[in-house]
Design brief:
about 500 residues; alpha/beta; Aldehyde Dehydrogenase, Chain A, domain 1; 2 domains; seven-stranded mixed β-sheet; six-stranded mixed β-sheet; 16 helices; binds nicotinamide-adenine-dinucleotide
Length: about 500
């Protein structure tokens, strides 16, 4: 296969020479071969991008355009991506090894996110009258300013667009930094932004490493950081933002629990549990990586799960029937294998998997692995592994199950499997996570998503996610002055 080569960076809506000669080598996780090289963004590129974004925000037309006009441009980005969805899906599979079926969801999901954001923004009350105790004010919801968006490699386009779409609809200007592992889909996103005819300076997309990310976060021209990735990086970013009170949204890791109630129909719940364990080959923040099961039904449940995992096809992610692909890198495989060894040493037992699959000499594959006899205090039950590894933890009564689910420093997602939906909702209310599903594993980009506890701060998606890109201003005039239609007509 011919190596792809890109030589420019998309800064402020233009294709420009990179500031340095440094290159990113994109390695395909299933073949371990270099498939592309692209310029690596460095501090000087970030200076350039922030400079034009600042200028565009402070003096450009974007933030003063009507929400409907902005929404129209955002829909054009969606149209462009929709027309290239298959190409994008294949690029994602090439760069991060996602099975093609799942990569297709990652290519089409962003189209829906852009459309939903545009629709929401076009009818959002950007200004509203607010009656106080002695005054009447106009509340104006203004764009927060220049946004630095930093995303990881596991759902590259989906996570990027989850930030870009609401930020643009709100009237912000954006510098997006894709992960160094996955810059290829970001080139298509750049082309989509170019095709949408956004004003100069509004969007820059600069792939780069941690140093470039850190430099961007600390840049004095940035008003808001929105980040998805590891807790460790999130903590550092939060500390950096504290210095200048830079606004911040963090979407971090998880160790989400699925509670299985004793009334469950095992056959009915298997598909949801397997999806919760193996989504994106185990590399997703919302995975249901702890399964909390009634001790009396543990054996039956583990047997059914092990049989189902054994039927999953692992291998070339480009093949249509592949359910599990490789992990992103040899480093990530080392990390996951390190946790599998740790689980054995901690006294857990492997019921399925535990090694590398046979017949796949190339690619960073790890078998889907089920641990039983897990205690929730073990590190394999407390730490995010980011691989296809499930911890099965038995309980004796439902109160204990709820306690185990909540005994985590994370609070991203969760689920319950039961025949009694009311009981499922009752349990959902008691679990301290940002989202929770009764009987399934479902994520919807138009529903707010985010974490309690160390899983993050703030929400993405829906109105709550949109508000993360706005600042509220109270404009107050002397008593007797009533703001008229010109002010309350909905524009920011
Ligand atoms: P990471 O958090 O280190 O990197 C994610 C993104 O943040 C990348 O674009 C990276 O360049 C950037 N970044 C890293 N440190 C930064 C900093 N100090 N300032 C600004 N930007 C910074 O994740 P990783 O190295 O790709 O993976 C490490 C681990 O993180 C994984 O094993 C996994 O457990 C976890 N992870 C979680 C998620 C998630 O969605 N929760 C996603 C990816 C990785």
């Amino acid at each position: 296969m011919m190596e792809m080569e890109k030589n420019s960076l998309f800064i402020g809506g233009h294709w420009v020479e990179p500031a340095s000669s440094r290159r990113i080598r994109v390695i395909c996780p299933s073949t371990e071969e270099v498939v592309a090289t692209v310029p690596e963004g460095v501090a000087a590129d970030m200076d350039h991008a922030v400079g034009v974004a600042r200028e565009a925000f402070d003096r450009g037309p974007w933030r003063w355009m009507s929400p409907v006009e902005r929404a129209d441009r955002v829909r054009r980005i969606a149209d462009h991506l929709a027309g290239r969805a298959e190409e994008v899906a294949r690029l994602i599979t090439l760069e991060n090894g996602s099975p093609l079926g799942f990569a297709r969801q990652q290519a089409l999901g962003p189209v829906g996110i852009l459309q939903a954001s545009a629709e929401l923004a076009a009818r959002f009350p950007f200004s509203e009258t607010c009656r106080g105790l002695s005054t009447t004010s106009l509340l104006v919801h203004e764009p927060v300013g220049v946004v630095a968006a930093i995303v990881p490699w596991n759902g590259p386009l989906y996570l990027a667009v989850s930030k870009l779409a609401p930020a643009l609809c709100a009237g912000c200007t954006v510098i997006l930094k894709p992960a160094i592992e996955t810059p290829l889909d970001a080139y298509v996103l750049s082309e989509a932004c170019e095709a949408a005819g956004l004003p100069d300076g509004v969007v820059s997309i600069v792939p780069g490493g941690r140093d470039a990310g850190q430099y961007l976060v600390e840049h004095p021209g940035i008003d808001k950081v929105t980040f998805t990735g590891s807790v460790e990086a999130g903590r550092k970013i939060m500390a950096s933002c504290a210095r200048r009170m830079t606004r911040l949204t963090l979407e971090l890791g998880g160790k989400s629990a699925a509670i299985v109630l004793s009334d469950v129909d095992v056959e009915a719940f298997i598909a949801g549990a397997i999806a919760g364990m193996t989504m994106n080959s185990g590399q997703a923040c919302a995975l249901l990586s702890r399964l909390i099961v009634p001790r009396s039904r543990q054996e039956e449940i583990v047997a059914a799960l092990s049989a189902a995992v054994g039927r999953l096809k692992m291998g070339d992610p480009f093949q249509e029937d592949t359910a599990l692909g490789p992990l992103i890198s040899s480093r990530q495989r080392d990390r996951v294998e390190g946790y599998i060894d740790l689980g054995r040493r901690e006294g857990a037992t492997i019921a399925a998997g535990g090694g590398r699959p046979s017949g796949l000499p190339r690619g960073w594959y790890v078998e889907p692995t089920i641990f039983v006899d897990v205690e929730n205090s073990m590190r394999i039950a407390q730490e995010e592994i980011f691989g296809p590894v499930l911890c099965v933890i038995p309980y004796d009564d439902e109160e204990e199950a709820i306690e185990i689910a909540n005994d985590s420093r994370y609070g991203l997602h969760g689920a319950v499997f039961t025949s009694d939906l009311d009981r499922g909702f009752e349990i959902g209310r008691r679990i301290r996570t940002g989202s929770f599903t009764v009987n399934g594993f479902a994520l919807d980009p138009a529903i707010p998503f985010g974490g309690f506890k160390e899983s993050g701060i703030g929400r993405e998606g829906g109105v709550e996610g949109f508000r993360a890109y706005l600042e509220t201003k109270a404009l107050t005039a002397p008593q007797g002055y009533e703001p008229d239609e010109r002010w309350t007509g909905g524009h920011a």
